[in-house]
Amino acid sequence: MKVETTKIEGLLILHPNVFGDDRGWFMESFNQQRFEQALNELSLPIPHFVQDNHSLSQKGVLRGLHYQNAPHAQGKLVRVVQGKVWDVAIDIRPESKTYGQWVGVELSAENKTMFWIPEGFAHGFIALEDNTQFLYKTTNYYNKESEGAIIWNDPTLAIDWPLSEVDEVLVSDKDKISSKFKN
């Protein structure tokens, strides 16, 4: 596994080793020991995963920007197993030197890239292909009372969504009324 750091400490882009031949390919989609070793080498905390989630989205569906507050905050290891997304994580840790900054990465079934998003980040994605299947490993259970959301097109965050790649943006009624980012 190749680990790529980002401009925000703790956010990691993971590229698994893929072994292919004329029959197809094989990869370890997750290996706790290798993941822990990579985090240890970067002096980052080791998460404990407790829940896996799986979603299906059509092209143009935008989910987010979601987070959970402490004590139910969630770290997420995310990847796409079918289709393609533009995935975004925003640092919402008020004490962080990168507070309010975001990182975006394309995740697809083709590139097999994964994104590690620790606690303290809002997260969202836009599906760039129909029938996109997205997997999340989370470090805490979902808790409705602890959930929060930031509006996806907040002007302060100025996220560079690849809107030219979709015909229309489809957002849930719940996400349409999300709060603005508090700077």
From TrEMBL:
Keywords: Isomerase. Its EC number is 5.1.3.13. One of its GO terms (molecular function) is dTDP-4-dehydrorhamnose 3,5-epimerase activity. GO terms for cellular component: cytosol. The active site is at residues 66, 136. It comes from the Bacteria. It is an enzyme of class 5 (isomerase). Pathway: Carbohydrate biosynthesis; dTDP-L-rhamnose biosynthesis. GO terms for biological process: dTDP-rhamnose biosynthetic process; polysaccharide biosynthetic process. InterPro entries: RmlC-like (IPR000888), RmlC-like_jellyroll (IPR014710), RmlC_Cupin_sf (IPR011051). Belongs to the dTDP-4-dehydrorhamnose 3,5-epimerase family. Homodimer. This is dTDP-4-dehydrorhamnose 3,5-epimerase. It comes from Acinetobacter kyonggiensis.
